[in-house]
Amino acid sequence: MSALDLRPAAAPAPRVRRIVRHALMETRLIVRNGEQLLLALVIPLGLIVLHAVAGARFGIAREPFIASVIALGLWSSGFTSPAITTAFERRYGVLERLVATPLRRADLLLGKATMIGLLAIGQAAILVVAGLVAGWRPAPTLAQTLVTLAVVPLSLVAFAGLALTLAGRASAELTLGLANLVYLVGAATGLLVPADSFPGWAQPLVTVLPTTALGETLRAWATGGFTPLPLLVVLLWAVAAIALARKVFRWTS
Predict the structure, then answer these.
(1) 57-76 pLDDT, tens per residue?
(2) Cα 136 to the chain's mean position, in Å?
(3) For the chain, does the N or the C end have fewer beta carbons within 10 angstroms?
(4) CB 117, CB 32: distance < 8 Å
(5) What angle do CA 61, 137, 75 make, to 5 degrees?
(6) What is the pTM of this model?
């Protein structure tokens, strides 16, 4: 009969489990934050309700508008929320303390990426259901659906890269102000307002923005169109934003 071994044998959890648990913690923190919920769900849901009440009176077509609202929600999940939360984590030393745990820096980033994906999926599901209840009836083609399935995750990658770039260099207070300002600018440039609504001289500039690429993709998906150009736009933005974030991000204040 072997002796009972009571010696401590502490060991970190497997890497995948560490990343998943960190992602779930990040998600819970975002969901509990009233300001983030305001941007992610309250404003988009309010826009859907407002359109249901008065959209027809102003001649605003339902299908492209609700697709635009979904794009706006994804913009907040991919850029605004990660920028603000990461900036305050860096200010209060949370990031450097987490790096001292078994979580590696790559694990922290993968956890944030998983959090963004979870938020985006849940948010999109809620907004789609709300749109359907309000009478939204998208008519996508197979080709545009395939484009959309590529554009949406690439857009989130580009947004997250831009968020980390801002949060990794600016102070928490400056990031908070700029992130909310950029949220409004993004809403006005391509997310809620189509590129062809701008003056001719401005359309080429608006078209190459990642916000426009996401908005135009979802509007084309909802209305049965086909727009492959945004795929190239968000691919370039995703590569450039991640490369820039990797270069300039600082883990400490």
Answers:
(1) 888 899 999 999 999 999 99
(2) 23
(3) N
(4) no
(5) 70
(6) 0.89
